[in-house]
Amino acid sequence: MTDCVSLPSTFYARPTLDVLEDLIGKVLVHELRGRRTAGIIVEAEAYIGESDPACHAAPGPTKRNAPLYGPPGHAYVYLNYGIHYLVNAVTENAGSPAAILIRALKPVEGIDLMRRRRTRRNGAPAAEDLCRGPGNLTVALGISLRQNTADLVTSNLRIEDQGVKPAGLTWSPRIGIRVGTDRQWRCHWTSSDCVSG
After folding, report:
1. Is this prediction's pTM over 0.90?
2. Could you tell me where the DSSP H helices lie in the chain?
């Protein structure tokens, strides 16, 4: 296992777009029942505040979106359209709702376990497809609502700095949404073949 350091809570307590840029190349890790899976973050999107129509905070505080208003450096996991769990990293200061949706990973640890979790009738996806897309990566890493509000610094679900640096970054409009598509708040590793969009 690579020597690594969990990102501190101060990493997340900054403007969301700055965190987004720095998050590409970091490693999302999940340890479940003694088994570790991990992938390099190659694609993510920002959702910022009540004025962002695509952010879950747009209607104001609710029971569901409460983690967005909480302390930075925690997970916000929700069920999307009753089908897929999606994992976000909460950013900025408590009371300022914002988060980064992790959209795609390059698998680096526990790849065989990821394949078993993602296997369907037509077989397991290729390695570059295992964590392509925000719903696929949560299946591959075994992330569910049980990880909602998890501390990304100290819990079994965390983001680590393993010294990986992207060769280049590309910014574009967010995808998979119907509103707020004009904002260039999606960032991905330019040359990665694991990017979802």
Report:
1. yes
2. 9-12, 16-23, 111-118, 134-141
